[in-house]
């Protein structure tokens, strides 16, 4: 059994998709399937029931998952403990924050020439864990998090954008209203995967006499682009920095769909002039 196999196992459990877990771990789907199969042989159990439409955890998976997460958390703690001390900051984020983050990092390095600032790509849950375990000093997230030992500081607010296929009846408009969109099916991931996005949608439509018309949830192994191409009458909501290749992006006249971007740090973190400068630059 290897730690990387446990990391792949946790990714499949959380994504319930070998393809999405492979993308998250930056390896091929065949490679992650091979490593999971090796883990199953080492343990002598089946961890997932695989069908053409779903990946279903077994009872053994339910028992193994918390222990696997504990092992990975210990690995992060070990790395943080032996890490060379010095003027170094590790910033955990995803690629959608890259442009603004790299600009802030450049400004921080100009003020602190000896500082080393790492930009680490991690999924949402791993970002939070990395800060809690001390493996990273700062994480950028959309929304907020309520977890003991962590502090959250709002940095800026993003306007969400509306996306449709080019064949949608509203696609020729530059701007639309929520009332315009209400009759057309709204495609979103399942609520358990995007709680914040669903809450924002509900809050925005609460002021209108009619709510959104929900279409079928976007399956975990599908993309919004493909679903909209298959449903030219539908629409979805994207983060402003999300890839929109093949889609038409519409702006809301009301600017009601907004989402905060926050920094997550440890509550007991020692004062750092480098981290303070980086946060100031991110605010800008």
In short:
This protein is α/β, with parallel strands linked by helices and 284 residues long. The chain has helices at residues 3-15, 18-25, 29-43, 59-82, 98-111, 124-133, 178-181, 195-205, 224-230, 273-283; strands at 48-50, 55-57, 88-93, 116-121, 138-142, 150-159, 161-164, 175-176, 185-186, 213-214, 235-238, 248-252, 258-266. The strands form 4 sheets. Strands 4-3-5-13-6 form a 5-stranded mixed β-sheet, with helices on both faces. Strands 8-12-7-11 form a 4-stranded mixed β-sheet.
Would you mind describing this structure in some detail?
One of its GO terms (molecular function) is DNA binding. InterPro entries: LysR_HTH_N (IPR000847), LysR_subst-bd (IPR005119), WH-like_DNA-bd_sf (IPR036388), WH_DNA-bd_sf (IPR036390). This is DNA-binding transcriptional LysR family regulator. Keywords: Activator, DNA-binding, Transcription, Transcription regulation. Belongs to the LysR transcriptional regulatory family. Helix 1 crosses helix 3 and helix 1 packs across helix 4. The protein is an alpha/beta fold. A 5-stranded mixed β-sheet has the order 4-3-5-13-6, with helices on both faces. Strands 8-12-7-11 form a 4-stranded mixed β-sheet. The chain has helices at about 5-15, 20-25, 30-45, 60-80, 100-110, 125-135, 180, 195-205, 225-230, 275-284, and strands at about 50, 55, 90-95, 115-120, 140, 150-160, 160-165, 175, 185, 215, 235-240, 250, 260-265. Helix content is about 40%, strand content about 20%. The chain has 10 helices and 13 strands. The mean pLDDT is about 90.
């Amino acid at each position: 059994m290897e730690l990387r196999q446990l990391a792949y196992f946790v990714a499949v459990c959380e994504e319930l998709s070998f393809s999405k877990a492979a993308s998250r771990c930056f390896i091929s789907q065949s490679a992650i399937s091979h490593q999971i199969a090796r883990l199953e042989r080492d343990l002598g159990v089946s961890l997932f029931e695989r069908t053409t439409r779903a990946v279903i955890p077994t009872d053994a998976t339910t028992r193994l998952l918390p222990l696997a997460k504990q092992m990975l958390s210990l690995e992060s703690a070990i790395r943080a403990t032996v890490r060379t001390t010095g003027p170094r900051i590790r910033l955990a984020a995803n690629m959608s924050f890259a442009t603004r983050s790299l600009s802030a990092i450049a400004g921080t390095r100009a003020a602190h020439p000896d500082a080393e600032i790492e930009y680490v790509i991690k999924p949402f849950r791993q970002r939070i864990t990395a800060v809690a375990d001390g493996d990273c000093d700062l994480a950028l997230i959309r929304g907020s998090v309520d977890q003991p030992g962590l502090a959250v500081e709002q940095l800026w607010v993003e306007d969400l954008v509306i996306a449709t296929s080019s064949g949608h009846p509203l696609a020729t408009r530059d701007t639309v209203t929520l009332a315009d969109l209400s009759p057309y099916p709204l495609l979103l991931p399942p609520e358990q995967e995007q709680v914040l996005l669903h809450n924002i949608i509900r809050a925005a439509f609460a002021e209108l006499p009619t709510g959104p018309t929900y279409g079928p949830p976007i399956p975990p192994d599908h993309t919004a682009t493909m679903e909209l191409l298959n449903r030219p009458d539908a629409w979805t909501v994207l983060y402003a920095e999300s890839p929109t290749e093949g889609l038409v992006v519409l702006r809301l006249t009301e600017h009601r769909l907004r989402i905060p971007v926050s920094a997550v740090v440890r509550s007991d973190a020692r004062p750092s002039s480098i981290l303070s400068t980086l946060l100031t630059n991110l605010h800008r």
